[in-house]
Design goal:
Number of domains of chain A: 2
Strand order of the largest sheet of chain A: 8-10-7-11-9-12-13
Largest sheet of chain A: 7 strands, mixed
Oligomer: homodimer
CATH architecture of the largest domain in chain A: Alpha-Beta Complex
Order of helices and strands of chain A: HEEEHEHEEEHHHEHEHHEHEEE
Largest interface: A-B, 82 and 83 residues
Shape of chain A: globular
Number of strands of chain A: 13
C-alpha cells in the first residue's frame, strides 16, 4: 500500500477548512456569503439577511470539566456563537444545541449545562429552537448553531478594511488566557496534593473572563448610537494577532498596531508578570476574549474615542507593508500569528 | 454528599430533550416553531419561513468506520439532515458542517468525507456555508445543520393529523436495518478470521439503504404535482413505530395500521428471514430508512394511490383508540415503539 497520508496538524485549522471546502460551488442564489467569515449570510428579502454561525466545543480540547462548572460551560458555549453574529453587526435570534454525552453524566449534570444555556438565552433574548442529543463513547461534545438577522446594508464583513482605516478593539485583552493559566496551575497543584485548597482569591475578573465571557452585544448598540458603520469586523476568539491576520487577509491590506495601545487590564498584566509572561503576548496570542476587532474610517475617529469601551490600536496600511507591531521603543517588528492549532 | 444522580438512559433520547428544554421560553416573534418537530420554523416575511434542523453523528454510536466508507458517511450525514427539511414540506438550501476528528485521521480521509458531502450538495442543490473543524481526543463527530425555505402555508407539521386521515409512507421499510445486520455479521466473521473475504454479494440494495440512503426530495415534488398537501408529516429515521407515536402524540390522535400493508422489499424480507427476524419487525423497529410518513385527507386517496412510491398503511383514529396494528389474521394489537435509545 502506498496510500498518501498527510498529517492534518501540518495544515492548522484554517488551512484544513480551506483545503476541504475549496472545491465546493454555490447552487442557491440566496447564499450571499458562505465559508470564510464569522457567519454565513443568506438573503431572505430585498433588504434583510439571515446570519448563520456554528461552533463545536470538545471536552479535553476546549474545556476541562475538572474546573469548568457546567452552568458556565453552557453559558459560554452560547456566547461563543452569539459573538460571531455580533461580529457581522447582526442580532442573534435563535440557536440550536446538539450534545454528545457519555452515559456517565447524570441528568442533573446536563440540567446544570442547560441552565447555563437558558440563562444565556434569556439574557441575550435568543430562542433555543432545536438540537440533537446523543451518547458519546468518551467526552462531552457541544455543537451550537446561532441564527441572526441583519439589514443587508448594515452587515459588516471581514473583507472591507481600506488603507488608512483605524483598527479598533472593544474591552481589554489577554484576561481569558490568564484566567486559564490560573486554573491550570491550581489543577496541577491539586493533582500533586488533593488536600491543598485552590488559591484563586482575588482573581475573579480573570476567572470570569475565562469561564463566563460575555458576547459584546453592547458594542453593536454603541456603534448604532454613534452612527458608526465599521468597514470590517471579526470577533477575537483565537487571539488578537491571529484575528488581525484574518481581517488583513480578507481585506487584502496590511496594518500597523502599537504595542502600548493594546488594552490590557491591570489584573491581566499582574497575573502575566507573576507567570513570567509578557502581558502583550497574552493579549496578542491568548484566545477566548470574545471582544470585537473592527476598522472604521478616519472620519469616525472622534466618535470612536468618545466611547470608553473602544480603543484605537493602529491603522490599516497597503498590503505590501505587511502586518506590523510597533513596540515601546519605536521598533517595528512583523507580527506573528500564533493562534490556536487544535491539531498539534 | 447526597447529590441526586438520575441515570439519563432511563429517560431515553426524547424524554431527555423534553426534560432539558421544557423550561425554555420564547423571546423572539420570528420563532414560529421551536423544539419538537423535524425542523424549527422561523418567519422571514409575511409568506415565507426558514427551516432549521440539526443532527449529530458520533463514531461508535451512529457509524462504524470499519465498514463505512468515509465518502458514503459524508453523503449520508447530509441526507439525514435534508430529510428533516423535506419532512416539513420544505426545500433545503444551505448546510453547515462541523467535525471533531482525532489527529490519527490523515487529510486524505477527511477529503473522502468531504467528497461525499460535496456530492450530496451538488445532487441536492444545497450550499455548504460554514462549519467548524476541531480535534477530538477519541472518535469522529459530525454535526450538520440544514437550512431550508418554505411557503408558510405549505409547511407540514407533525401535529396536523385528524381522525379519518390516511396514513401513508414513501418507498419501502426495513432495508437499512437489514443492511446493518449484514455488515455487522461480516464484521464478526472478519474479527474471528481476518482471512475470510466478506460475503456481501447480491446485497447491494440493502447495503446502499444502510450506507448511502437518499433523502426523499422526489416525494415533495410528487406531492406538489398531485396537489396533495399532507395534514402531517415526519421522516422515518428511528423506525416506523417510533415515528407513528411521535406523529400521533403531536396530533393528539390514535391510529390503526395494517401489518400486510407495510411496504417491505423482497430483498429485505429474504434477508430478515435469513437472520430469523420477522420482516415486519425490521420495518417497524429498524431505523435509518429516511422515508417519509405522512397523513392525507381521505379525499386525496385516489391521488395518493396513483403514485407507486406511496403506500397507504392505515388511518388515523381518535386518541382514545390508541395506536394499533392489525395483523394478517385480523387480530388487533397495541403497537410498541421500540425506536432507538442511544443511552442504553
Amino acid at each position: 500500500m502506498s496510500e498518501k497520508r498527510t498529517d492534518i496538524s501540518q495544515l492548522g485549522e484554517f488551512g484544513l477548512i480551506d483545503t476541504l471546502t475549496k472545491s465546493f460551488t454555490t447552487h442557491v442564489s440566496s447564499t450571499l456569503k458562505g465559508v470564510g467569515d464569522d457567519a454565513a449570510v443568506i438573503s431572505v428579502s430585498e433588504t434583510e439577511a439571515m446570519l448563520v454561525s456554528t461552533d463545536m466545543l470538545v471536552e479535553g480540547i476546549h474545556f476541562n470539566l475538572m474546573y469548568t462548572p457546567l452552568m458556565h460551560l453552557g453559558y459560554k458555549s452560547v456566547m461563543v456563537n452569539l459573538s460571531d453574529i455580533y461580529a457581522m453587526n447582526g442580532k442573534p435570534t435563535q440557536i440550536t444545541v446538539s450534545i454528545a454525552v457519555s452515559s456517565r453524566f447524570p441528568l442533573e449534570a446536563l440540567e446544570e449545562l442547560y441552565a447555563g444555556i437558558k440563562k444565556a438565552c434569556d439574557l441575550y433574548q435568543v430562542d433555543l429552537v432545536g438540537g440533537d442529543t446523543t451518547s458519546s463513547l468518551s467526552g462531552l461534545v457541544i455543537s451550537i448553531t446561532a441564527i441572526g438577522v441583519a439589514q443587508k446594508n448594515e452587515i459588516v464583513y471581514r473583507g472591507g478594511a481600506k488603507e488608512f482605516d483605524l483598527l479598533v478593539v472593544s474591552g481589554d485583552l489577554g484576561g481569558a488566557y490568564m484566567g486559564l493559566q490560573l486554573l491550570e496551575r491550581e489543577r496541577e497543584v491539586f493533582k500533586a496534593n488533593p488536600n491543598i485548597q485552590p488559591d484563586l482569591d482575588g482573581h475573579d475578573y480573570l476567572l470570569e473572563r475565562q469561564l463566563k465571557p460575555e458576547a459584546r452585544k453592547d458594542v453593536i448598540s454603541f456603534l448604532k448610537e454613534l452612527e458608526v458603520q465599521p468597514t470590517s469586523m471579526i470577533d477575537i476568539s483565537d487571539g488578537l494577532a491571529s484575528e488581525i491576520f484574518h481581517l488583513c487577509d480578507a481585506s487584502k491590506v496590511g496594518c500597523t498596531i502599537y504595542d502600548d495601545r493594546v488594552p490590557i487590564d491591570a489584573k491581566t498584566s499582574m497575573a502575566a508578570i507573576e507567570f513570567n509572561i509578557d502581558p502583550i503576548t497574552a493579549a496578542l496570542n491568548g484566545g477566548e476574549d470574545y471582544e470585537l476587532l473592527f476598522t472604521v474610517k478616519q472620519s469616525d475617529y472622534e466618535k470612536v474615542v468618545s466611547n470608553p469601551h473602544f480603543t484605537v490600536i493602529g491603522h490599516i496600511t497597503d498590503k505590501d507593508s505587511g502586518v506590523n507591531l510597533v513596540d515601546k521603543h519605536g521598533s517595528v517588528v512583523a507580527l506573528q500569528a500564533q493562534g490556536w492549532n487544535h491539531f498539534e
